[in-house]
Amino acid sequence: MISRLLVANRGEIARRIFATCRTLGITTIAVYSDADADAPYAAEADVATRLPGHTPAETYLDMVQILRAARRTGADAVHPGYGFLAENAEFAMRVGDPDHAGLTWVGPPAKAIAAMGDKMAAKALLADVGVPMLPTWTDADQVTDFPVLVKASAGGGGRGMRVVRDAAGLAEAVASARREAAAAFGDGTVFIERYVERGRHVEVQIFGDTHGTVLALGERDCSIQRRHQKIVEEAPAVLDPGLRERLHAAAVAAGRAVEYVGAGTVEFLLAPDGEFYFLEMNTRLQVEHPVTEAVTGLDLVRWQLLVAEGEPLPLAATPPVDGHAIEVRLCAEDPAQGFRPATGTLHRFAVPQLAGEFTPTKGLRLDSGVVDGSTVSVHYDSMLAKLIAWAPTRAEAARALAGALARAELHGVATNRDLLVRTLRSREFGAADVDTGFLDRHPEVFAPLVSADLLPVTALAAALASAAARRAAAPVLAGLPSGWRNVPAFPQVARFAAADGGEIEVRYRLDRDGALAEWSSTGERRGPLLTPPVEEGAPLNSEPTCADDPPAVTLVTTAPDRVVLDVDGVRRSFRVHRVGSAVFVDGPAGAASLTELPRFPLPTAELAAGSLLAPLPGAVARVHVEVGQRVAAGDLLLTLEAMKLEHPVLAPADGVVAALPVPAGGQVETGAVLAVVDPEEDPQ
Asked: Which residues contact 50 (CB under 8 A, 6 or more apart)?
């Protein structure tokens, strides 16, 4: 019997495993890096022990350190979670081998991990038992048909994947995929397979025990992806019954071929013509396992622990499916900037109306690795949490999930929340018209929820709340109505920087009773709610030249953390959270992150023209040009590595490389100058 379980992982999966262990009376043991010393999972474990270092290679990928931690804490079992060492056959062998650690391994046998870990060998093995395969190459020189997909042989999660549409880009794609795979998995081996346009990514959850039983527990559709990484997953997939039966049979055949034990996932690519092809088998619990739990009512972590103890599977056949479940991966990243990862402090993380956390429950479920005050670092994956909704029908689940996401308070770090909400609310998603190219075909889902024409009212709410906070903090003025002045005709002015880099200025005047007398806004944006810039000395709310006047706004209530406005006869409530100069506003249309700017900023030195700055902390993986080299707009200058991914830095215009301050391998912080390109002079 397992009594003390060490989880060789971090974040939300560690917290998820701990939740089941608490119900079973199992003592939980966490390992944490220096970067995770204050992480929620480390605090929640019954016992926690340090792995010195910050990077994955120094900590969660160091099996010697982790096995020492198991001995130090008296663990009798190890659960690898997913990622890091979860699919490392040598680690599984060392944990379970009596000549090494001699602990219970909560996962499949090392031989099964090894068999499926080499994707080329796995394809050959499973083809022999009738599982359909795509054409595959290991030598780039043999590829003649395009498009193709370059894939890492080890690991998963979309890392080390590149779509290539012509021969000219194949060599660089292979080299880049090798570097990324080596950094993420310690193995740079890649292969190439035919790329199917508009394919769906459908996977089958299988489970095996030591008594020879292998079951399919249903399937999931994980087609909506960015950078070949899943961001929306659902169960069951929208399939006809005959296709579902064939998929389940192929997945079970794959499991039996390697005598599989524990939780595993067999992934398939479903082509538009209805044919399906094996992609890979993940020999671990998947990130998206909660949707299967929601529609089956099973606790898959509990099953993992029971099977590891030698118990037979509690079921003898595929369980019936109840309702529909959809999961989204909430990530710290900016979709509008090519999904650039974001780092910083998460000042507030709250999802309203949760039915439960880390449990296979109906309604809403949150699997989160963060809480208020958590630091999002550059060292690990950008995923903050998973939000899951179950409902009797797919449409109800999508609506509930989109609503919960839209109301969530996510302050301090850019996220992909707005993209997820728009995706769930899109007509195409509602019609189940999804495939792996969904985001490429639907740029409209990248628009923020708070549109440009609603931003002025949002900024007005931020200005009114900030003024109320300043007055509340002033002992003498706190008793006066907000905005009271000796000269009531003089407006108050607030300037904000928006998340997209634009600026907006709000001018408003309150009367002596604290009511909003009039207001206007100016800025770079133009729309039906914006007035033109106010000329010096012109009366407030002078006649605008744009199509429509600003909306009629009445102030209903104001407080430092909440403002209620009547906008053209519609009452809108805004929740306002301020941290320093940052102002986070959650309103009925969505959330906006603003930075209040000083009215009279001090002059600052400007950077040299053509400077390219680091968008986030990381390391320069590769420099592709030399000082003095002529480049064209869009040319690749260097590659920045952060959060396990490579980020290209491109020339902003035609010119000459004037400086490359950071060599390959150099570490940089946000805002560091990576390169300077002197623009070419326009010949006259």
From this structure: 31, 32, 33, 34, 37
How far is it, in rounded angstroms, from Cα 585 to Cα 499? Answer: 12
Tell the burial category of 71 from Cβ atoms under 10 Å away from its Cβ (0-12, 13-18, 19+).
Answer: exposed
Asked if residue 132 lies in contact with residue 30, where contact means CB atoms within 8 angstroms, the answer is: no
CA dist 530 and 151 (Å) reads 49
Contact 7, 17 (CB under 8 A): yes
Q: Dihedral of CA 646/652/654/659: which sign?
A: negative
What is each CA distance from 40 to 10, 30, 61, 371, 414, in whole angstroms? 10, 11, 20, 7, 20
Q: Give the burial class of 435: count Cβ atoms within 10 A of its Cβ; 0-12 exposed, 13-18 middle, 19 or more buried.
A: buried
Q: What are phi and psi of 286, to 5 degrees?
A: -90, 155
Residue of higher predicted confidence among 468 and 524? 468
Using one digit for the tens of pLDDT, what is the confidence trace for 146-204? 999 998 877 666 677 888 999 988 989 998 888 888 876 777 888 899 888 899 999 99
Chain center to CA of 210:
36
**pLDDT interval class at 485 (50, 70, 90):** low
C-beta separation of 41 from 369 below 8 A: yes
pLDDT at residue 533 above 60?
Answer: no
Report the pLDDT value the prediction gives residue 600, as an integer from 0 to 100: 62
Taking the C-alpha atoms of residue 531 and residue 57, their distance in angstroms, rounded to an integer, is 55
User: What is the secondary structure of 457-516 as a DSSP string?
Assistant: HHHHHHHHHHHHHHHHT-TTTTTSPTT--SSTTSPEEEEEEETTS-EEEEEEEE-TTS-E
* Token reading at 272: 């538009």
Mark out the alpha helices in 51-190 (DSSP H runs).
63-73, 89-96, 110-117, 119-127, 170-185
Closest CA to 620 of 642, 600, 635: 642
d(CA 17, CA 20): 5
Q: Which of 76, 64, 67, 30 is nearest to 50 (CA)?
A: 30
> β-strands 200-208, 214-226: how paired?
antiparallel
> Cα–Cα distance between 174 and 192 in angstroms, integer?
9
Residue 516 and residue 510 in contact, taking contact as beta carbons nearer than 8 Å: yes
Residue 27: strand pairing partners: 4
The pLDDT of residue 357 is 82
* Alpha-helical segments (H) within 358-435: 394-407, 417-425, 427-430
Q: Do the beta carbons of residue 466 and residue 596 sit within 8 Å?
A: yes
Measure the CA angle with vertex 663, ends 657 and 668; round to 5°.
Answer: 105
Edge-to-edge strands, sheet with 262-270:
276-282, 262-270, 200-208, 214-226, 229-235, 324-331, 383-391, 364-368, 356-357
How far is it, in rounded angstroms, from Cα 2 to Cα 306?
9
Give 231-256 pLDDT, tens digit per residue: 999 999 999 999 999 999 999 999 99
Domains, in order of start, for the chain: 4-106 (3.40.50.20), 135-195 (3.30.1490.20), 197-446 (3.30.470.20), 455-597 (3.30.700), 611-679 (2.40.50.100)
Distance between CA atoms of residues 559 and 518, nearest Å: 19
**Mean pLDDT of all residues in 474-483:** 60
Closest Cα partner for 565 from 528, 515, 639, 637?
A: 515
